[in-house]
Give the backbone structure.
Amino acid sequence: MFKKILIANRGEIALRILRTCKEMGISTVAVYSTADAESLHVRFADEAVCIGPPPSNLSYLKISNIIAAAEITNADAIHPGYGFLSENAKFSKICEEHDIKFIGASAEMISKMGDKATAKATMKAAGVPCVPGSEGIIKDFPECIKLAKEVGYPVMLKATAGGGGKGMRAVWKEEDLQDAWDSARQESAAAFDNNDMYMEKLIEEPRHIEIQIVGDSTGKACHLSERDCSVQRRHQKLTEETPSPFMTDSLRKKMGAAAVKAAEYIKYEGAGTVEFLVDKHRNFYFMEMNTRIQVEHPITEQVIDYDLIREQILVAAGVPISGKNYFPQLHSIECRINAEDPYNNFRPSPGKITNLHAPGGHGVRIDTHVYSGYVIPPNYDSMIAKLITTAQSREEAINKMKRALDEFVIEGVKTTIPFHRQLMDHPDYVEGNYTTKFMEDFKMKPLEEED
């Protein structure tokens, strides 16, 4: 087992990893930018190393600084969390070259699954259902026109190096294809220094449902059931739940088996998610694989009583998994609390938290790194907390979430708490009747209309 783990991340996930390390008797090293000097993960770690100024490219994305921090503290493993360098093949390879265990996927695995076109070809070879579309990168616009006719409109153009919704364009008719092709390539080149595109059939009324998997060094994998992540804004998830209200027992078994097949085909090691689009007829199609821990992992932990960070560390240390597939026994919902103003188009709201009261009680979990007096820097993602409620049924979990949101007080900055509170009362959400298009029609009630 590892003696010391460096946590190459910040915020709530750094604190989340740190807690499990402490419970396992493993020493911890926090790294931080100057903007995060007062963050809780810095305060609670056994050691802390400043790795640069606030900009991510000069701190949390600067591989040389993180490797140097690991070497001077004699860390024998690095946990990258999510975001930043968690799916960076170069970083995984450099860790290996320095005899530091990267608690995540190998460089080869990240490269294979990080490029969406390559990932799709791999999954087709594995026998996992894929969305009809191009076999790989589209070489030019004439090929793009030909493919769109073959696949049938509507189609979705996607950047192979994409993420966060960048480089994606839905096209409903041929006369709009040229503009979509040009703008998607320009956006992808600016965001990822790569303008390669591929095409898929646009799935109408889609649900975004992911299957949590864990694989070990022997090539064995298991699944930990699904999470429904369909409530999104600009391709960023806002809330997640498990089990999905759209799922049936039969579909759960089929999707779980497909995800395990995918993981075992590529001999995947570590925790990951196989992400699917599910249409209104409950046909499911492989979308992508995330080779890291997910933001929404706590709801899976809650419904099957399973520490995913601990499992990541054990697998990285060479401990084999049980091979058992897990199915949810409870219902859990997560609301991402962001420092954003939902009444002003979700505009970011960094600044100082002047007062904070966190909810509690049975079935309420909060993962956060903020406290009264904490200054939210403007340099990073706006998520400041994850509020998770767990109960015997979906109805109970929603009611518990309403109560917890009513108790949650954060003053000094704007947050998305009012949005989530309205969401929990929305008839379509309450009925479980939502798709990835849900937020296109959602309108915040003005403050004066709220109870």
In short: The mean pLDDT is 95. The first strand starts at residue 4 and ends at 7. The first helix runs from residue 11 to 23.
